[in-house]
Amino acid sequence: MSHVDERTRALQAPSSAVIVASTSNPVDDLRRERAKASFNARELEALLHGGADMVHLRRRIADVMTSQDVFSKRGKYFLERDELYKSTLAKYLALPKAVTSMKEKDPIQVARIMREFIDEPGGLDLHLGMFIPTIQGQGDEEQRKYWIPKCVKLECIGTYAQTELGHGTYLRGLETTATYDESSEEFIIHSPTLTSTKWWPGGLGKTSTHAVVMARLFTKGKDHGVHPFIVQIRENKNHEPLPGCTIGDIGNKMGYNAVDNGFLRFDHVRVPRRAMLMGHSKVEADGTYIPAPVAKVSYGTMVFIRSDIVMNAALFMKKAVTIAIRYNLVRRQSNVHPNSGKECQVIDYQHSQRTLFPILAKAFAFHCTSDFMRRMYFEFQKKSRKDQDFSALPELHATSSGLKAYCSWETKDAIEACRLTCGGHGYMALAGFGTTFASYAPNVTYEGDNNVLCLQTARYLLKAYRKMSSGGESLPSALSYLHGSDSQSQLGQGASLRDENAIVDAYAHRAWRLVTDAARNAGNMSPDDTMREHMVSWIKAAKAHCAFVIMNTFVQEYSDVHQYVKAETIAVLHRLVILHGLCGMDDTMGEFLEDGYIDANQAAGIREEIFRLLAEIRPDAAALVDSFGLHDYFLNSALGAKDGDVYRRLYEQVQAAPFNQSHQPPGYAELLKPKLSKGTFGVSKL
């Protein structure tokens, strides 16, 4: 019998020498916590997921996936990169059959949920998340009919090749060229410099056969800017690179290593004229260039991706805070309390609550914001396709840019904050924080530096301010705060500290002040000049605008759900709305104190109100994370499983670690044995 078998047998045996009963049972602790709830968690879960039918569907999907070996996550945290890549790819390739087996009316929805549950980005991620959407959004009808069926059947696997070794966020700086040859009706795709090498596209390193390549279009000697082209880069039969294509993997990253991020260079690769996606701009056979009806209409696909990133921000924040709160509810750490005879639950330390409960509230706020972003995008898509109405594009582009940056920053920091509340056990791979952070962190640098995306929002804010100041067109509702604000907040004075509308007014005031100050400092400077000269001020203004949009959306969503849920659920949602608002103010109080909008007494009152809210939310902590409806299969965390059986799960899972399959460590024979074999120590010798 191996030593692993011995450990397992010892774990199962009731021997006090192996496992001593603790003063508390974590399973019982979590059960008691759920019993304290003031509201029905299932009602809130149904609200968040769009109805009880959707909750039921998600549970059915989880049951299907956990019953099939191909979807198993057992031992995932101990896999080497090759094994992780292969395991993840196998899961993605098993999706079509699993989706079909569900026999649901909306297979695309089922596939989306299954991808969410897999929770591991892989070689097919950009095929599904960027290659197909780009063809759908920027191809013409003929191109969509030709390519989409091939994509769905995996007759081709695509990636999205935009970022280059020398350029990320600044699209106008991309160097890859697509020069039209009228004589052959072909484009010549070329990488003229080292820095024009495509770098980072997921799935490029090993998986993809095709790529949407963003390249500078040249016709008749004129540069028309960056456009998308579908280029085959590998042979379907043997997966070898096609002539003129130099391809490879960029190596291990800090994480995210199931994805084969790659590099790609072109040496005068020829593709047909129809390889250019022509849903908006076109090149005729004679080389005549026909521009898109709206210059930035191609941003639509990127806006969709950004809205997806905002949605993922909510999901990853929910995941991290669920694991952390469940563990904090069962973890006991202190001297034994004289009344209970037990150590104190970590969640009962005020600092843990001040860390975790605002993240919990923010997860709800981001959930509402992601819904708002999706509605905004699909409304634009409907109008642009049906009526050729692109008027909403500037606001959509600016909002998605800012929210992508703001939400990804906040979520990355929240995951780490959640880990820290879990102490040493939170650092274990089995806790799930490591892969969660590593999988999410790249969102912060998608499209390059988030600060540059904030400046895109800032340009929109400056333009809107100048139009308003000159008596121009009316402002969108999200910018109505630019008309002005009261000089003094009514919070804690004329209005209750729990008046959500007064809190929204405070967020609006801050955004108004920061935008106004930055715009006045800019004077008559061009947008480019003021973004360089006053960059920090404009980034701060863009962040304030995003914080206002999130707060305002949260309050609107809260106001709209009163008719759908019971009073108890409304009450707990109201606490979350207020906590999110007040903590956001407390964490950046200097921005409210700076112009006297909030005074010292109000600031102190806000802080005290936060502590009261933490105490009120405390009994509902377990039920609130339950309401997210995150299945154990998705969480894949020894600390965050729904039953709370933390310690047994940790002990059992480490037994399967490859490092534990032998008592002798790697290199024992040549490194340790020659030294240790010379000794004859034993207890009897001491």
UniProtKB/TrEMBL annotation:
SUPFAM superfamilies: Acyl-CoA dehydrogenase C-terminal domain-like (SSF47203), Acyl-CoA dehydrogenase NM domain-like (SSF56645). The active site is at E447. Residues 501-676 form the Acyl-CoA oxidase C-terminal domain. InterPro entries: ACOX_C_alpha1, Acyl-CoA_ox_N, Acyl-CoA_Oxase/DH_mid-dom, Acyl-CoA_Oxase/DH_mid-dom_sf, Acyl-CoA_oxidase, Acyl-CoA_oxidase_C, AcylCo_DH-like_C, AcylCoA_DH/ox_N_sf. It is found in: Peroxisome. Keywords: FAD, Fatty acid metabolism, Flavoprotein, Lipid metabolism, Oxidoreductase, Peroxisome. One of its GO terms (molecular function) is fatty acid binding. Its cofactor is FAD. GO terms for cellular component: peroxisome. Gene3D superfamilies: Acyl-CoA dehydrogenase/oxidase, N-terminal domain, Butyryl-CoA Dehydrogenase, subunit A, domain 2, Butyryl-CoA Dehydrogenase, subunit A, domain 3. Coiled coil: none annotated. One of its GO terms (biological process) is fatty acid beta-oxidation using acyl-CoA oxidase. FAD binds at T163, G202. Residues 299-462 form the Acyl-CoA oxidase C-alpha1 domain. Belongs to the acyl-CoA oxidase family. This is Acyl-coenzyme A oxidase.
